[in-house]
Design a protein that fits this description.
The protein is an alpha+beta fold and 184 residues long. It has one domain: Protein Transport Mog1p, Chain A (3-Layer(aba) Sandwich), CATH 3.40.1000. The chain contains four helices and ten strands. The strands form two sheets. Strands 3, 4, 5, 6, 7, 8, 9 and 10 form an eight-stranded antiparallel beta sheet that branches. A hairpin with a 5-residue loop joins strand 7 and strand 8.
Length: 184
């Protein structure tokens, strides 16, 4: 059984193209198959991937060098949401609307504003929103786009800058935009 799982992991890893990391492995808690999809990100000085939290949350988690996702004031992460797992979502517009509604469900006083589009290295546009707490809460900027990999798999892309403070948020903005603009 372990040999079969290893073969599946290798096949998924080899078939992945340059922009989406795809891997299948045995889940630590359930002994079931877990699938991991996340955007590959270029190295940005001062940041590193927290691989343990990347696997735990099934997303590419980036943290300031020397910190972890759990103890960093500010984190950046990227998710690739496999579209076939979202059959009720018809397009990116609805995906974004549902995400914003979920945020407002948890914090109705949250301020959400759309910012200028940002393009990645391939010229793909990212729709960007700023999520500002009115009192307590995290400062966030979220960039949304879509991806079709070389095997024809379709994903919604979600890049997130999350900070416990306005200062940390502002300090990490340039690096967050570098992660997006260097994405292939």
């Amino acid at each position: 059984m372990r040999k079969a799982l290893l073969a599946i992991t290798v096949l998924f890893s080899l078939s992945a193209n340059a922009e989406i990391w795809r891997e299948a492995r045995t889940c630590a808690n359930s002994n079931q198959m877990c699938f991991y999809w996340w955007p590959k990100l270029k190295d940005i000085k001062g940041w590193e991937q927290d691989i343990l939290h990347s696997y735990h949350y099934k997303m590419n988690t980036q943290v300031p060098t020397g910190l972890t996702f759990a103890n960093a004031e500010t984190v950046i992460y990227a998710r690739a949401v496999y579209k076939p797992r979202m059959p009720g979502t018809k397009d990116l517009e609805q995906f974004i609307a549902d995400d914003k509604a979920d945020f407002l469900n948890h914090d109705p006083a949250l301020s959400i504003s759309q910012l200028e589009l940002l393009k990645d290295k391939k010229g793909r546009s990212f729709i960007i929103y700023k999520f500002t707490p009115t009192e307590k809460g995290n400062w966030e900027q979220i960039a949304y786009s879509e991806e079709v990999d070389s095997d024809g798999n379709e994903y919604y892309l979600v890049f997130v800058l999350n900070s416990r403070s306005e200062y940390g948020y502002k300090k990490a903005l340039d690096d967050f935009h570098k992660f997006i603009s260097s994405y292939e």
